[in-house]
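User: Here's a structure from my thesis project, written as structure tokens. My advisor, Dr. K., wants to see whether a designed sequence matches the one we expressed. Can you design one independently, without my sequence as a hint?
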């Protein structure tokens, strides 16, 4: 991949080589569009990139994906449409997750029956409610799959299941079926992977996200998720497209409310009638384009929206035999049952400091892919939600947060702190530096109930300027970002077909005059 583009004019320029940008580029390149992807970072992938340190390989942010090697899975379908079906070495995981609470520790196996039986054993008097809750979540999953495939945004209005639950939080949905408070809190153990507690998150989003794991299975990608990004880049290049790394887009050129092209860090002006922003929407509006080009109502809408929490991560290489600790690939530790309390404590780290940390997730990909570490050793990635602003310098606070997470992880990995063959931590500043997301946001916009249904759409008030990725529909995560690229592809070719049809009709009308 070269740093500079080969030409000065393309059909499409994509800003940012994250999953949403690479996906849109692949689909359009396959359709015959000449495509250039410009990326600031050394690697393609955005949050899906990986890095190596001391013979250990770590995924920067992506841990698992649903439906990658399941023909019923949405990700499998999206990869198939990119020509990548059955071409990536995905590893199916036998368990969905392990969860550790003050009085409970359990592992949930794959498939829907595994979900029901695990929680029914934990809370026998809730068995009937667990079954009815999962049944309703399955209905929501099925309806959401239908909705995600719909190209008409108003299709939602005709779906009775979507309409029934669209104003309900996931917490409220669980309360309709479960009466044991701890059953409610533990049933949503995956909540921290979605960036908001169930009291704020949509019942539609949580139910779909959780059930996708049990309907479509979950997978790790052998060699790290960088392989997925690299495979998408290869497909773009196979169709004559280009991906330029280490070359940041400095400006989007707009004339008469029409996108005209971009200016690169290396100084080139690249002409393109279609510009797709896969990067930070706020920075695009206020920096790359300039808010003077947007209607006041559009600027106000963005100002009223909140960005998601960021994350603090600790990347560890250890000589401990992690396979003997009865952990799943994904393990969650919560010091409180109440997810709202945990979330609020993390939101108030400015007042409490690292002592306020009360939950984390541990990912151990070497449990299924030993190639990521030297022989006989393992990797473990500790992740927790944190705000961008903690009222102190992250560089000074980083050692304290790192120590706090390692100590918490020792609840399931005893003596971890004394077996650190390698350790490195990343803060929200790290996230922001490498992905250019405002405040190191891990999901773009916060994934609360209101914002999941009011995200900015793929089109913008500027003709030829479009959005892809987690700052637009449908939301955060690898699958959602790729789906965003696919939906945008259909929007662009649909508009092109409509334009050609109008031109054809105009010519025919002219012939009759």
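Assistant: Designed independently from the structure alone:
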């Amino acid at each position: 991949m070269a740093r500079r583009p080969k030409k000065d004019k393309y059909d499409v320029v994509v800003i940012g080589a994250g999953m949403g940008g690479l996906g849109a580029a692949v689909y359009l390149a396959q359709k015959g569009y000449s495509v250039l992807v410009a990326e600031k970072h050394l690697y393609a992938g955005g949050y899906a990139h990986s890095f190596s340190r001391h013979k250990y390989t770590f995924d920067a942010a992506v841990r698992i994906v649903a439906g990658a090697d399941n023909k019923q899975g949405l990700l499998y379908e999206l990869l198939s449409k990119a020509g990548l079906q059955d071409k990536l070495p995905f590893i199916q995981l036998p368990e969905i997750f392990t969860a550790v609470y003050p009085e409970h520790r359990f592992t949930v196996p794959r498939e829907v029956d595994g979900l029901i039986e695990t929680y029914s054993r934990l809370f026998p008097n809730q068995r009937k409610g667990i079954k009815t809750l999962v049944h309703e979540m399955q209905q929501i999953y099925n309806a959401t799959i239908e909705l995600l495939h719909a190209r008409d945004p108003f299709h939602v209005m005709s779906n009775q299941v979507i309409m029934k639950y669209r104003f309900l939080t996931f917490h409220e949905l669980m309360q309709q079926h479960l009466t044991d408070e701890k059953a409610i809190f533990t049933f949503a153990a995956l909540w921290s992977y979605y960036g908001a507690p169930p009291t704020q998150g949509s019942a539609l989003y949580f139910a779909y996200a959780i059930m996708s794991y049990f309907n479509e299975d979950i997978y790790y990608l052998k060699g790290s998720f960088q392989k997925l990004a690299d495979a998408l880049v290869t497909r773009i290049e196979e169709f004559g497209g280009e991906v330029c790394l280490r070359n940041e887009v400095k400006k989007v050129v707009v004339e008469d409310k029409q996108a005209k092209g971009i200016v690169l860090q290396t100084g080139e002006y690249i002409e393109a009638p279609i510009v797709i922003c896969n990067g930070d929407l706020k920075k695009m509006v206020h920096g790359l384009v300039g808010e003077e080009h947007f209607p006041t109502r559009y600027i106000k809408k963005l100002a009223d929206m909140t960005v998601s929490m960021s994350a603090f991560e600790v990347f560890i290489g250890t000589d401990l035999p992690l396979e003997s600790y009865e952990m799943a690939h994904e393990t969650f530790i919560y010091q409180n049952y109440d997810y709202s309390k945990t979330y609020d404590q993390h939101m108030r780290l400015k007042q409490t400091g690292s002592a306020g940390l009360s939950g984390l997730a541990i990912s151990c990909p070497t449990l299924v892919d030993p190639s990521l570490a030297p022989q006989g050793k393992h990797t473990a990635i500790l992740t927790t939600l944190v705000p961008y602003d903690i009222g102190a310098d992250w560089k000074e606070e980083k050692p304290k947060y790192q120590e706090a997470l390692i100590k918490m992880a020792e609840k399931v990995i005893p003596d971890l702190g004394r077996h650190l063959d390698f350790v490195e931590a990343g803060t929200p500043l790290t996230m922001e530096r490498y992905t250019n997301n405002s405040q190191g946001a891990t999901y773009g916009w916060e994934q609360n109930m209101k914002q999941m249904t009011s995200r900015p759409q793929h089109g913008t008030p500027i003709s030829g300027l479009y959005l892809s990725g987690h700052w637009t529909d449908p939301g955060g995560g690898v699958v959602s970002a790729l789906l965003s690229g696919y939906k945008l592809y259909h929007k662009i070719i649909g508009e092109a077909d409509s334009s050609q049809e109008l031109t054809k009709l105009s010519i025919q009308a002219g012939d009759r005059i």
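When you compare it with your expressed construct, this may help: The chain has a mean pLDDT of 94.
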